[in-house]
Specification:
This protein is mostly helical. The protein has helices at residues 2-14, 30-43, 46-57, 60-87, 92-104, 106-135, 138-148, 152-176, 188-198, 202-275, 279-345, 350-406.
Length: 407
C-alpha cells in the first residue's frame, strides 16, 4: 500500500528536479545545451517535454530562448502539476501541505516538490497504518502495532511488504476456521473449497474469501435444505407404505370376517328352519350369527380407519415429495445464478472454479431428483395399495351390514 503510493509520488516529483532553471545555461556551448534539452525531452514533466521538443526542432535562437525563459516557465508549470497530483492522493496531511504550497508561491511549490512533502507524507503513513490496524485481523493488528511503535523505516517496511504478509497469514486463519469442525464451517462444500484455497496461491485464497466462500455457503445451505426435504419425503413415503400395509391387512381381515359372518347367518337360518319348534336351538343359532355379524362390523370399521390413515399418510408423502422436488429444481437454478453472479463480479481463473462448483450443484440436484423419483414411485405404490385397501374395506363393511341384517 505505502510502497505503491510512495513510488507514484516519487515518479511525479522526480521529473520536476532534472536541473534548475536559469540564465546560467545561456552561455554554455550548443552541444551541451542540446544534450540538456534531449535529457529534458526524455525525462522531464509534460510541459518541459513539450517545450524541449519544440526547442530541439527549432533554431539556435529557439534553443537559447528555451533556456532563458521557456524552460523555467515549463518547469514551474510541471511543479504545480506535481503538487496538484499529490493533493489529489489519499493522505490528508500531504494534501493540505500541497494545497498550501500551491496557494502560497512558486517558491513554496518548489520547496514542497524538492522534499518538503516528506514530513507530511510520513504523518499520513502513520494514519494509513492506524486505519489498517483498526480493520485488520490478529496478525495484521500485531504487525501494525509494532510498526507504529517503531521508526519511520518500520512504518515504510510494514506498508511496503509487512502488511501483505500479515494479511496473508490472517487469510489463512480465516480459511482454516471454515474447515469441517471449525467454528465458521457451513458444510462439506465450504470445507472442500477452503482446502483448495489453502493449497493455492495468496491470490486464490483472497479470491475464495472475497467470492468463493459465499458461493460455497449458498451451496451448503441449498444442499442441507434439499437433503432435509428429501429425507422428509422418504420418511413420509415409508409411513405411507406402513399404513397401506396395515390397511391391506385390516381390509383382508374385515373381508374374511364378513364372509364368515355371512356363512354364520346362513347356517343360523338353516338351523332355525330345521329346528322347527325347538326355540332354544333357533335362538342359539341366531345368537351365533349375531356375534359373527358384530365381529365383521368391528373388523370393517377397523379396515375403514386403517385405509383412511393410509390415505392421509399418502397425502403427506405427496406434499413432502412435491416440496423436495421444488427444492431440487431451486438448487439447480441457484447454482446457475451463483455461477453467473461470480462471472459478473470478476474475470480470470476464479471463473473456472465457480463454474465447477455450479456444475457440482447441478449434478447434486440431478442425483436428488433421481432419488426423489424413487421416493415418488414408492409413494405411488403405497397410495395404490391404500386405495385398494379402502375399496376392500368398503366392500367388507357392506358384507358385514348384510350379515347383520340376515342375523
Amino acid at each position: 500500500m505505502g510502497r505503491g503510493l510512495s513510488a507514484a509520488l516519487t515518479a511525479l516529483l522526480t521529473a520536476t528536479l532534472l536541473h534548475p532553471a536559469g540564465p546560467a545555461w545561456a552561455d554554455e556551448d550548443e552541444p551541451l545545451e542540446r544534450e540538456l534539452a534531449v535529457s529534458d525531452l526524455l525525462h522531464g514533466g509534460p510541459s518541459v517535454q513539450r517545450a524541449a521538443a519544440a526547442a530541439l526542432a527549432g533554431t539556435d535562437a529557439d534553443m537559447q530562448q528555451y533556456f532563458d525563459t521557456v524552460f523555467p516557465e515549463a518547469q514551474a508549470a510541471d511543479q504545480v502539476a506535481a503538487a496538484q497530483a499529490v493533493a489529489a492522493m489519499d493522505g490528508p496531511t500531504t494534501r493540505a501541505a500541497a494545497l498550501k504550497a500551491i496557494e502560497t508561491s512558486s517558491e513554496a511549490v518548489w520547496a514542497f516538490v524538492q522534499g518538503g512533502w516528506h514530513a507530511s507524507w510520513n504523518v499520513d503513513e502513520r494514519i494509513r497504518t492506524t486505519l489498517i490496524l483498526e480493520a485488520g485481523g490478529p496478525t495484521v493488528k500485531a504487525a501494525a502495532q509494532a510498526a507504529l511503535a517503531g521508526s519511520t523505516e518500520d512504518l515504510k517496511g510494514f506498508l511496503s511488504s509487512g502488511y501483505e504478509k500479515a494479511s496473508y497469514a490472517d487469510d489463512r486463519i480465516a480459511a482454516t476456521r471454515m474447515l469441517t469442525g471449525g467454528p465458521n464451517n457451513s458444510g462439506p462444500v465450504l470445507n472442500t473449497a477452503a482446502k483448495e484455497a489453502l493449497a493455492g496461491t495468496p491470490e486464490q485464497l483472497q479470491e475464495f474469501l472475497s467470492y468463493g466462500q459465499a458461493v460455497a455457503r449458498a451451496r451448503d445451505a441449498e444442499l442441507a435444505s434439499l437433503q432435509s426435504l428429501t429425507q422428509q419425503a422418504k420418511q413420509a413415503a415409508e409411513t405411507t407404505a406402513r399404513e397401506a400395509l396395515a390397511a391391506t391387512g385390516a381390509s383382508t381381515r374385515a373381508a374374511n370376517a364378513a364372509a364368515e359372518a355371512k356363512k354364520a347367518a346362513q347356517t343360523a337360518a338353516a338351523e332355525t328352519k330345521a329346528a322347527g319348534g325347538a326355540a332354544k336351538k333357533a335362538d342359539a343359532a341366531a345368537g351365533r350369527a349375531a356375534d359373527a355379524a358384530k365381529g365383521a362390523a368391528d373388523a370393517a370399521r377397523d379396515a375403514v380407519g386403517a385405509s383412511n390413515a393410509a390415505m392421509r399418510a399418502a397425502g403427506i408423502a405427496s406434499d413432502a415429495a412435491r416440496k423436495a422436488t421444488a427444492a431440487a429444481s431451486a438448487t439447480a437454478q441457484a447454482a446457475a445464478r451463483a455461477q453467473q453472479a461470480a462471472a459478473d463480479a470478476r474475470t480470470g481463473a476464479g471463473d473456472a472454479k465457480t463454474a465447477r462448483i455450479a456444475a457440482e450443484a447441478a449434478r447434486d440436484a440431478a442425483a436428488k431428483a433421481r432419488e426423489l423419483d424413487q421416493v415418488r414411485a414408492q409413494r405411488d405404490r403405497a397410495l395404490a395399495e391404500a386405495e385398494k385397501a379402502a375399496n376392500a374395506a368398503k366392500g367388507a363393511s357392506a358384507d358385514a351390514d348384510a350379515a347383520a341384517a340376515a342375523a
